[in-house]
Amino acid sequence: MYRTRPESECPTPRPAYTVWKMATQSKPRHHAAPMEPRWPVVLALMAVCGLYLALPEPLTLGPNWLLLIPVGLLLLPAIVTHRMGMDSVNRVLGLSLSALVTAALAWSMGALIVSLPQHHQSATELLRSAGALWISNILVFATWYWKLDAGGPHARDKRGVHTEGAFLFPQMNLQNAVKPWKPGFVDYLFLAFNTSTAFSPADVAPLSHWAKLLMISQSMLSLGAIVILAGRAVNML
After folding, report:
1. Which pTM was predicted?
2. Do the domain assignments include residue 1?
3. Structural domain of 94
4. How many domains does the chain have?
5. Which residues contact 217 (CB under 8 A, 6 or more apart)?
6. Which of 136, 154, 184, 228 sits at 20 to 30 Å (Cα–Cα) from 145?
């Protein structure tokens, strides 16, 4: 036989609002991270153009101010297409802009290495040129990492949370935190700076093949600017 429990021993049902509140408080809410600002990249490209103007004309492809014209012709439409939400066109313009400044950087570095045995430049000019190319190397490759990692800034903005990409950031192991995280231009600038100074990543590991090849290229250009060029200029003092 079944024994009925007294009414006083029956558990009091909880209101539906209380159950819903406990369920929502048990799990932290993840909100999408804010969109990445584009102005740091614009400033980096403008700084590269300014450093290019500091180079002597024998190290540039034509007059040293010539690079400003194609950069301006690509940069202005890139800003407009970003404002209009034309992501595919903006990506093409951004990649073309990065390829242009990379070609100018490689040309100037090669011209400096070729002219080194000829002693056409003084020690002061050689140090200034090597320093300008070394800083430009950091800024140019930082833009490459920023544009290519995880599909670029537009794709990272759509996902909101950065969980996978070509680089393994330490914050990617903390995705269970309440506040979401995704890399910005400063994170890629820090990666490029470490690659140019230590010739290796510090706390960010490259995972894809293209990331490793880009870091190899950056390290080779930085090695030429620091060891060969600066060392030769010091010996000339």
Report:
1. 0.79
2. no
3. 37-236
4. 1
5. 141
6. 228
